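Progress against Task 2.4 (sequence-to-structure conversion) is shown through the following example record, which the project officer requested during the mid-term review.
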Amino acid sequence: METVILAVFLAVLAIVFISKTVFVVRQHQRGVIATFGKYSRTVNPGLVFVFPFIQSLRYIDMRETVLDVAPQDVITKDNAMVTVDAVVYYEVTDPFRNAYNVVDFVRAAMKLAQTNLRNVIGDLELDQALTSRETINVRLREILDDATDKWGVRVTRVEIQTIDPPRDITEAMSRQMKAERDKRAAILEAEGTRQSQILEAEGQKQSAILRAEGEAAAIEKVAEADKFRELTVAEGEGQAIERVFQAIHNGDPTNDLLAVKYLEMLGKVADGKATKIFLPLESSGMLAGIAAAGVAFKEGMEATEMEGDDDPDQGDRATSNT
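Structure tokens generated for the chain above:
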């Protein structure tokens, strides 16, 4: 019986000894070993052996961790109360400083983030705070990174989750936004009407220009057609006159024939509604020739009659011939 109890005691002692001697450090961890409470070394992931009751091992998580900063009321530069909520992303870079330079890193980082959040937003007006989240994030990250460097921690990101102004300010901002949107809508509508009128006027202008150009082109074509017709007619009349003149010249007409033709032409000229007829200057000579021909013809007739009186038989023959 005593042998069994001794065996059990030795087994328990062996288990305790092994649990105090053999440790496993995971991939995302680092181990800080202290001998009699004094820092000895930092071990990497894997199987680690320490002297039991003499050395101790502390695990340090090296993964990036999220710290949720509790919502708090902050007064802006223009005395507006806003509620701000943020999150901080950090990771351990030095296990030794993280283990020995701060007692409770999470609580210390929380208080540090809240304090600097008040300072950063307190330097901004409400409109700046609402529209400059990226600027606030960068400034907070720089401040927290510098402050936590001695704790072996690097702050990677800071994100402002919400910035909630009071209800009355929210309602005023909503009315202001609505008024601004109505103003922009009215401006856009007026601009659209203006552009429409400009385009309509431009279209009418182009239409009038094209219509005028079309009418001018039509007038030009009609004028060219009339000119061509007149030239053709004139050319035809010229050729006709030339042929008539050539025919008259070839026929060798006498002055009596020309006078008769001239009289016929004068009859055609007078055959109209005009009350006055202007004769060319050359017509006086032609009329004189006609008058002379008439006198000669009259004298010839009188001489014939006288001869008839002298010869009765001849007169009878003339009468019978008539």
